[in-house]
Amino acid sequence: MARLTISSTQRPLATQVRQTLIPSITQVRYASGKSKKKTASKAGSSKKAEKKKLPKHFKSFDPTEYPQFSLCDAIRYLRAYEVGKRPLGVKYELSIRLKTMRNGPVVRDTIKLPHPITSGERFGVICPEGSEIAVQALQAGATVAGEESVFERIRNGDMPFERLLCHEDSENALKQANLGRLLGPKGLMPSRKLGTITNNIRKTMTSGASEYRERVGVVRMVVGEVGFTPRMVADNVAAMVKEIKSRCTALEDLTEKAVSEVVLSSTHGPGFNLNGKFQSTDPNVKEEDLAGVM
C-alpha cells in the first residue's frame, strides 16, 4: 500500500512576490500642503479661542429667585455657624454684587462706618528714614517705617502690612522708586484720592476709616464683629450700601453700574441674601439674643 506523504509548501520570499501584489500605502495630499491633523488642531484651537471670549458684563442673578432673609435671621444663622470659634476672630462681611461691565471703571474709596471695626490691620509707612515721623508711626503700631528700607523690602516681596501709608515729604521718593507694578495689583499703592498720602500719619492710622474696592463686580467690606448688636450691624450695612449707590450714581455718565445683590456672611459661615428687612421671622427671637459672645 502506497504511503501518503504531505509535503509542506514553502512560503514565497518577499523577493519572489511581484510588486503589483504588494498593497501600496497611499498618502493623502492637500492643496495647501498641510496635513489633515494640523488642520484639525488649528480648527480646535480656534474653537478654544472662541470659548475664551467673555461677555461684556459680569454675570448677575435675580436675587428674588433665591431664598432671602431679614438681617436678624441672617445673623441668627451665622452665629450658629460660629459656635465654638474664637470670638475675636469672627467678623460679619458684606458683599455687594454690582451690575457692571468687565472693562468699565471700578468703585473704590474709603469709608468711616458708624460703628468702626477693630480689624487689627497692619500698617506700613513710607516716611523720611529715621525721622520723628517714623518713630511716631512705629509707636502707633506700624510694622515698618522708612523710605529706602521699606522700598527694598517691597522689591524682595516682603510686605508685612495690609495698608501702606505715605507721608507727603516722601511722595517724590515713592514716585522715583517705581513700585506701582508691585503695589498696584495688591491695592496697596498710596494715593491722595484715597487719603493714604497724608501729612498726619498717626491720625490716619487711628481714624477708623476702611478702604473698599470693587473686584470682579463685587465690593466686600467687614461690617461687624460677633459682639455687635443687630442694630449696629444694620447701621453699618445701610451706610455701606448708601455709599456704593452714591458711587455708582457718580459713574453713570461713564458706564452702567447699579447694586444687584447684597449678601451677609461671616468668617466661617455661608452667605445669606438680604431682603432689606430687619426683624426676624420668628417672634420669639429678640435682638438681645443676637449680640455678645456665644
Oligomeric state of the chains in view:
single chain
Structural class: alpha/beta
CATH class of the largest domain: Alpha Beta
**H/E series:** HHEEEHEHEHHEHEEHEE
Q: Give the proportion of residues in helices.
A: 25-40%
CATH topology of the largest domain: Ribulose 1,5 Bisphosphate Carboxylase/Oxygenase
- How many helices in DSSP terms? 8
Q: For the terminal residues, how far apart are their CA atoms? A: 112 Å
From the alpha carbons, calculate the radius of gyration and give it in angstroms.
Answer: 33 Å
What percent strand? 15-25%
Task: Please indicate the count of domains.
Answer: 2
* Biggest sheet, spatial arrangement of strands: 2-7-8-1-9-10
User: How would you name the CATH homologous superfamily of the largest domain?
Assistant: Ribosomal protein L1/L10, rRNA-binding domain
Arithmetic mean of pLDDT: 82
State the total count of DSSP E strands.
10
Main sheet makeup: 6 strands, antiparallel
**Architecture of the largest domain, CATH level 2?**
2-Layer Sandwich
Low-confidence parts: none
Apparent shape: globular
